[in-house]
Amino acid sequence: MKKKSHFKLLLCTVLVVFVVVLVAETLIVKVQATNLRKEPKFYSPTLAVLKAGENVEKISSQAGWYKVRTSKGLEGWVHSSAVKTKKFTLLAMDKSLKTQATADEVALAGKGFNKQVEEKYKAKHSEINFAWVDRMLKIKVTPKQLEKFLRDGKLGEFGGEQ
Description:
- It is a single chain.
- The chain is of the alpha+beta class.
- The chain has a single domain (about 25-85, about 105-160), classed as Roll (SH3 type barrels).
- The protein contains 5 helices and 7 strands, in the order αβββββββαααα.
- The protein has helices at about 1-25, 105-110, 115-125, 130-135, 145-150; strands at about 25-30, 35, 45-50, 55-60, 65-70, 75-80, 85.
- A hairpin with a 2-residue loop joins strand 4 (about 55-60) and strand 5.
C-alpha cells in the first residue's frame, strides 16, 4: 500500500513540475540595460543589471512590474517596459541567412532603430550633435536620487492617484 501511495505522490510531483515548466513564461530584455530590483520600485536596491537580449523567467506580476528569475537563479523585479514576451525563433533552411541579432541590434530595435536607420538619420540630420546622446546614455542616477525626485515631484507611489 505504501509503495502505491509513494508512486502516486511521485507521479503527481512530476506532473506538477511538467505543467509549471510548460506554463512558465520567458521574457527577453528589450532595452540596452535594465536593473533587476529587490522590490517593484524604481528606487529599490539593484540586485543585478540585465542586458539586452537576456532571458528571464516570469514568476508573477504586480502593478506594471514582473517578478522574474534569471538563468543564474537570482530573483527580483523588472519593470514591464524593459521586457517583452520571447518570440519563437524560426530556423532558416539556408544557413547563410542571419537568424539571430546581437544585443546592440536588439537594443536599437527596441527603440525603433537599427544600425542602417541610425546611420541614415545621422546623415539626414547633420545639424544634430549625437555626442550628447552618447553622453546622456552614460548618466547614472542613484536609487536615492530617483526616490528624492519622485518624492519631490509627488510622482509614482508618492503622488495622488496611481
